Structures are given as structure tokens and as C-alpha cells.
Amino acid sequence: MKAKRYHFYLVIFELWKLLRNSFFIGFYLYVIKYGEESLLLKYGRIAFVALMFFVVIYILLKWMTHKYELDDQSFHIYKGVFVKSKQTVPFSKIHNITKHTSLFHKIFNMTSIRFETSSTDEDADIVFNVITKDEATRLEEYVTNQSSEEAIHDEIEEQGQLKSERKIHFSSTRNELIRASFTSLSFLLFIPIVASFYSKLDDIFHIEKEAEGIFSSIINSWWIVTILLVLFILCSVIFGMIRTFLKYGKYEISSDDNRIYIHKGVLEETAFSIAKDKVQAIEIEQSLMKKILGLAEVKLTSVGSMKIGDESLDVNTLYPFLPVKQAYKIISALLPSYKVEEEMVSLPKKSFWVRLLKPSWIWIIATAILFFVKPRFFQLEESWWICSILLLAIIMIVRVLNYLNSGYLLNEQFIQIKYGGLSTTLFVSKRDKIIEVVVTRTLLQKLFGLSSIATTNRANPVEQNKLDDVPIEIGRDFYLWYMARRNEIHTE
């Protein structure tokens, strides 16, 4: 493939970003300060126009000079307007592929795509901020096939083969989206949005002063308050459902022999794919609400930054509201090489006493502040010590829950760690995907024959998981288990 320029709509995209980022400065100089002719404003306007002119020229020169090409093994990116440079990224180093179609892209029937490497340096990734959908699909298929050492024959035939090999494991339904809208509590976001909108209107039109009499009459009428409250709740629920539908509508999880694919979004679409052998770990998270409803969120840990441009994309999550049993089935189907065991080894009883005896710096500092300030609550003279006791009780309850929820399991090449109080996290990883382990002991742990174990996986930022107060024998076994990876590790 010969070196070619990026699509011309990239210029429009860059100009849109420039307009968006400089709008408020221009609005201040030419609208808010209109008619003022101070020296600072006069030269500020000249500088603003000059800067905009040079940035527009730079955007055009950048589009004319930046190019890309592909061969059988690598991307080749040519950069630089005044100083030329060439970047080469082998397909074998690409871990994740993320496509994002924003409202801007939909207007022009375009999309964006990012090929993420194992490097933590964002400049090592290959990013197409604006590209046609056909070209994005062609690049994705070419890279995935070449990186798995599969020859490409006929493009049409290959597309048909790709579709036939993919198996859909989950697609969101209407009932699931309704359940997700309540589980995510997205309807509560309606409150700060309305409050912010009202505050801005009040700043401009002074609504509160003008309608003071109307507000007092409404408050004194219980049936008007009831109607308004019902309408507000109804609007909140509708807002939550619409937001959930736009974010999680068309959610689909699929896979073929080599890769996992996640697609979501209605107004703005995001598609994520990762090679199965590039998955560093699995995390199964449950908030308090999800634990009550028997739901879980499964995350695939990878080395990518999960973003395109300035937008951070939460795309490595399997549907965040999966029933626990269904989540385990999907994990087994997507990653047959991973083993997630429901039965784990609990912490010994002495770990319970260690956690209760461990000093809480949050409680100590808060109690010291309360002692010196001595605030009065509910007109009680010595209410500060009641607050201190309540805080200590909450901390102890969380520690008890953390003890009950904690567990571990070393299973051949796998490790499972579970921890958390009100919310829990189950971490599962292969031995050859862990880049560092640490075994530590505090003075209190030494007295009880305990230790803490921690793992580090490659991610952006790095993924760290820790389990406190396991028996010292487990700490030794954990270290020896990790050392056995020498026979498994291979250089990518």
C-alpha cells in the first residue's frame, strides 16, 4: 500500500475543535467586551485573530504532510510539518482496537479508530481521528488478520468469513435497559441538571426575585406540590431511561476464534476489540446495589488507554448489569483458557481480629478535629463524641464486611483474589500475565502469623490488586507459585 493522506474531513474536525476551544475567548473579546477600546483588549483581539490564522494554516499544512501506509507487518506513519519523522508500529504490538463514532462523525458519515499498543506512551498508538467507515473496517480486518498470520485473499470473501465466525454472546434487550436505568441510578442525575439550569436562568432573568409571590403560594398548596413532585419524579425516570438507552442501547458482546468484540451506543457508538491472548486479567465488580440485585460488572484488563483524542471511553467492560451466573457463562465462552471458580478459600479467624485491631487514621484524625471544634448537632451539648462513636462503628462494620467478602485461590496457572466491603472486586489473572508480585508483613501481621500479597499487571495505568491478612504460609506459596512462571513466559 502506498503512503496516503488522511481524509480531508480531518481538517474540518480540527477546525471544529479549534472553534470549540477558542469560542469563549472570542465571545469575551468580541461580545462581552464589545465597544470597549482599551489597549489590552485592542491588542488582545489582534493577537487572537493572528493566532487563529496561523493555527488554520498549520492545520492545512499538517493534513498535506502527514501520511500513513501499511505493509505486511507494520504501520508506517509519516509526521512533521517542518521537521519530518517516521513512526513504525508492528501489528504484533497492537493489543486493542477501538472505534468511536461521535455525533460529529455521524453527520459526515465517518468514524474514528485507534490501534493501541503495549506502550504506555500515547504517541506509540496509531490514531485516525476522522476516517471513512469502510476504510476503518478494512484497516481493522487487515491488521487483525496479519497479526494472527492469516493470509488475505479476497476482501469480500474475507468479510463474509469474519461475520460467519463471530458468535454473539449477549445483546441488550428492552427489559435489561429498563433494569439498568434503575440500577445505575442515572435518574438521579436529573436533579443536578435541573438545579444547574435553574441557577443559570436565575442569574440572567432573576426568576427567584420576580416570582417570589408565586413560589410562596405554590409551597402553601399541598396539591400543587404533590403534582409537581410526581411530575419531577416522572421526568427523572424518563430522563434516566433515555440516558441509559443512548449509552447502553445496541450493546453487543461477540467473539471469534482470536478476538473479543464489544459494541455499544445509539447516538454515539463505540466498538472495542481485543485479542484474547492480550487480555491481562478479568475483574468482576459488584456495588452494593448490584449485590442486592444479583448483578455484576465484568472488566477486561488490557494495556490500552481506552480513549480517542481527548475522550475517555469506558469500552473494556462487558455489559455492566449482567446477572452473576450469566457473567460467569460469558467469561467461559469468551475466554475458555480462563477459569473462574465460585468457591474460594476464606481468610482465617485471626485475620478478623487483626482487621479490628488495626488503627484507623481516618477515625483518629476525625475524632481529634471533633474534640477541638466540638460542633453541636440536634442541640446536644456533647454530640461530638456521639459522631466519633458512629464513625468508629461504620468503620468496624466495613472492616467486618471486608473480612467476610475476602478470599483467595491459587489454581495451577491462575490466581483469584476477592476483596471489598460494601462493594466487592474479584480479580482473576494468569501467572504469565502478572509482571510483579509483592509479599509484605506489618508488625501486627507478624504477631499473628499473617502477610499481605499484591499483584501488578500491565495496563494504563498499571493494574494493582492486594489482599491483606492471608496466612504467612500462603504468602510463601504465592511467591513460589509466581517464580514457576519462568517456564511459561515468552517474549512478545
Biggest β-sheet description: 7 strands, antiparallel
- Name the overall outline: globular
Order of strands, main sheet, comes to 7-6-5-11-10-9-8
Number of strands: 23
CATH architecture of the domain at 339-492: Roll
| CATH class (first level) name of the domain at 339-492 | Mainly Beta
CATH fourth-tier homologous superfamily of the domain at 339-492: Pleckstrin-homology domain (PH domain)/Phosphotyrosine-binding domain (PTB)
Walk me through the topology:
Elements: E1 4-5, H1 9-32, H2 39-65, E2 67-70, E3 74-79, E4 85-90, E5 94-101, H3 103-107, E6 110-117, E7 126-132, H4 133-147, H5 155-165, E8 167-171, H6 174-183, H7 190-205, H8 207-210, H9 212-219, H10 222-248, E9 252-255, E10 259-264, E11 269-275, E12 281-286, H11 288-293, E13 295-301, E14 307-308, E15 311-312, E16 322-323, H12 324-334, E17 345-346, H13 349-357, H14 361-373, H15 383-405, E18 407-411, E19 414-419, E20 424-430, E21 434-440, H16 443-448, E22 450-457, E23 463-471, H17 472-483
Antiparallel strand pairs: 1-2, 2-3, 3-4, 5-6, 5-11, 6-7, 8-9, 9-10, 10-11, 12-13, 12-20, 13-16, 14-15, 17-18, 18-19, 19-20, 21-22, 22-23
